[in-house]
Amino acid sequence: MTEATASAHPNIALVKYWGKNPDDQWLPITPSVSATLDTLTTTTTVRDASEDRVTLDGVEVHDAKIAHWLAQARTKFGLPSIAIATESNFPASSGLASSASGFAALAVAANEAFGLDLDFSALCELARMGSVSAGRSMLGGFVRLDPASNEQVVAQLHPRDHWPLRMVVAVTDPTQKRISSTSGMARSASTSSYYSSWIVDTGKDYRECIAALADRDFPRLSKIAESNCCKMHALMLSSKPPLLYWKPGTLAAMETVGKLQEDGLDVFFTIDAGPQVKAFCSPEVADIVQEELQVTPGVDHTINCGIGDGPSVH
Ligand code: PMV
Known about the structure:
The chain is α+β, with helices and mostly antiparallel strands. The chain is about 35% helix and about 25% strand.
């Protein structure tokens, strides 16, 4: 039997991607920068089968995103019928980037199981066919995804030990989000008058973020990451009908981060297409940040992670 297992970690964007290239659905319209995490892991096993089957955390499911990925991957890379069994140690589809780690692990496992022998660029493309941000989980440390790059679209900016930041996730609602990123992005692109400014601003934020990471300049990174995140949520809110991913606990957690900043702590927030707040901080203050977020009203639980590595084959 042909079989392989791979693991990958989610990544959290410091400069976000919200909008696809109209001519290539696997490429974003803007560049982005992320940090790959440790602790949170998706592990996926693929094997050949008489028909496609998907098991998520032990339960057989029909997953539209995976079905779409299979159709694309079959056309481009000639995948046979496969059975996929995937497990994550964190809630899926709630803004914790489970699709990024999921499709990165799936691409690596499929490449291994079926001897596709893809080079890094093609492997990233296979991951991006499921979720554009999965391309960034193909590497560890600090990663950039630049659709206009003359070199690799996905590249590592720095390995994990360049800057041992911590990230505390404040989980405010572990249930699945109602509007997927793909349909939310399409809505923003077609209905928000902020969309063109978002594209221009994100290009500038991208360059600023890369400089702040190179210098390990926390105040500069904090400013750019919070600003870029808030611009993405302003874009979401200005879509018609509005996209609101926040819960009361989201705002309360943002306020907690603001109070800790006033006390002089190196911490900033970022939020994706879900209600969870991710607080990046220096390692010295990670325990205080976690304690304060844990007792913030509306926060269900917290998870404390570091910067992690790229995918591994078992
Ligand atoms: O790649 P997707 O479809 O999971 O979209 C990711 C979108 C955000 O998480 C909101 C931003 C980002 O760059 O990760």
